[in-house]
Amino acid sequence: MSYYKLYQSFYKRQNHQILHPPRLCFDTLEFYIDIWAGDKLIYSDVVHGPVFDAGIKLPPHRISSVLGYHLQATEYKMMLAVEPTFKLPLSQPVSVSVLVGRKDTNKLARIIHKAMFDYIDRSSYRAMAFDVIDISPMYRFLPNIRGWISLLFMEGGDECEIDVFGIQMDFNDVANSKDELLALTDMEADQLDPFEATARVNKFVLPEFILQWILCSLFLVTGHWVMVLISLPIACFHLTLYLKGKHLIDVTEVFRSLAREKQHRVIKLGIYLVFLCITIFRVALVKFDTLRSAAADPVYFR
């Protein structure tokens, strides 16, 4: 074979590649969707894969013809009818987070994390947000892939709020079919199930509070005033959380409160390390004084 024939065989890119059957199916998937207006959770639901895959079969009558044509288009997209509908205030920042999990494992993948609905297209009656998908390190050479989510709203209403009746999610940058979307989902990075993660953290909260209250009381009784001054703010903070019923992490708010909870625990860890350093120093000091006093005592011989 000549170099010219070899060049003719490979100079054109092969666009028609056979996609291997996906290892996932919608029957084993669940989508966790949370939408906030400011700090208020206005929508939260766990959507089963077949429901998201089936789309909106009976759209409401009060939608525009443009949106009706979009719902009937042939390109693949996942859609969900919101029942009951909810009002979306436009005067506040609105954000969304989406996770996808498998029913047969305790792992989830993050699709969208606190993406803002910055663009509201009133001509197509959609409010859109996107985020870069968290791909597994096994596929480190893939470019950034965006996941899009849209809120579908009805005609009418006022300038301050919109009436949302549906949610759409797609990955049209790279996935235009059901099998392509499932293959893309299989490449996303696994994370711990939020229900299991919050359960693991919450079981240590009350023991930590009780132990810290006991230590603060012992410092107070024994007259260690410096330790009391260090531990008393944490004890008051724990007591305030307990009386308000906010000492446990709410699984529905875990993504919203993750940064705050992490900051609280980092600060407490620093204070506990100060406790440890002071305790080690005092133990070493007492031991040193004991050895020095023993060495200073006179020894008498008979």
Automatic annotation (TrEMBL):
One Pfam family recorded for the sequence: Cornichon
GO biological process entries: vesicle-mediated transport
Regions that span the bilayer: 210-237, 266-285
UniProt keywords, alphabetically: Membrane, Transmembrane, Transmembrane helix
InterPro entries cross-referenced by the UniProt entry: At5g39250-like, Cornichon
SMART domains per record: Cornichon
Protein's name in the database: Uncharacterized protein
Biological source species: Linum tenue
